[in-house]
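pls ignore typos typing on phone
flavin mononucleotide + seq
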Amino acid sequence: MAENILKCFPHTTSPFIASAPMFGFSDAGLATAVTKAGGFGFIGGGFLFQTGSSQLTALDTQLTNARSILGLTDEQPLPLGVGLITFQPDGLIENVIPILQKHRVAAIWLSFPQAEADHLPIIRAIRQTQRVSGWETRIFSQVGNIAAAKEAIQQKVDGLVIQGTDAGGHQWAQGASLISLLPEVRDLLLETGNTTTAVLAAGGIVDGRGCVAALGLGADGIVMGTRFVATSECPAPSEIKQTILSTTDGGVSTVKTTRHDVFQSTDVFPRRYDGRAVVGMNYRDSEEGVSDEEIIRRHNEARAAGDDRRRTVWAGTSVGSIKAVVPVEDLIKTTQQEVRAILERVKAGL
Ligand SMILES: Cc1cc2nc3c(=O)[nH]c(=O)nc-3n(C[C@H](O)[C@H](O)[C@H](O)COP(=O)(O)O)c2cc1C
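k done
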């Protein structure tokens, strides 16, 4: 699919820009706005898939909403994707794949398995469903190191999302920035004559400059997460958007650690993952020696009182370059225009 990523998703324009499936933030409104603007929107599909999970009904509702926003009939495929967090895969095959097939989503993004091998039965089940139903969908795996990339390639995914450690949100505890990861992945594909697996870059990209860099390093397209949080269509609370706008110097003002999840009682990710978020009151308390129990108590007390100041703000290291909340269409068009202008300028200078 590599050279053809734009052809695989015919509504997309060049260069290929996707919005990350940020669970709780990437809803039908955000994803359809991205898709309508010529990008590729992903909806965050969640991480609890057992029968009876409210995340299953929420996903079905989001996809129905997306269908209605885009004015599609029940028969027409949905030109957007769904991201699934896979470290608790119980129920995923039986309960989620039928929902995705019913809506004929154009792409599925898998991330954060306990072990890479856990994706194989999921991928096989999707392929089997495709064979019997004629459903066209592309499978992406988000990976943060070369070993994981190799395994995803062997599992014959259609695309890799290479996630560098500048990324906002959860990620590999041990990884590298895109500048190291992307060329090694591209070489791996070249050495094996693989021209079909698409490569998307994620982590610290917020504008055309980052996009040009990623394309230069070997990506076929890019994914932005934090940048899409600060858009008019993202349902994130305005306090989160304001924190993103007011935060500068992301290498210092964000931190990559498992501690964010401890403080907000969401410490369920396997130990090979951590997360990058803005350094906030909880983290500062911890640095000053306050116990975890006391921080959790303060966090819960603030939440119960409707005080959002202790809320985790997941954000990447490029947060300092995000200066305004903008409509999705402006973000995508401006980024694409910047890419063309930068490339022309660079070419003229050679
Ligand atoms: C608020 C937020 C929530 C995220 N949630 C998810 C998620 O549910 N699933 C997932 O695969 N990645 C998630 N990520 C990571 C993104 O997929 C992506 O790797 C990251 O946003 C790229 O870095 P950037 O934020 O610097 O653009 C999240 C990132 C952010 C910022």
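Residues 20-23, 25, 44, 83, 85, 111, 142, 163, 166-170, 202-205, 223-227, 229, 314-316, 318 surround flavin mononucleotide (CB under 6 Å). The radius of gyration is 19 Å. more later
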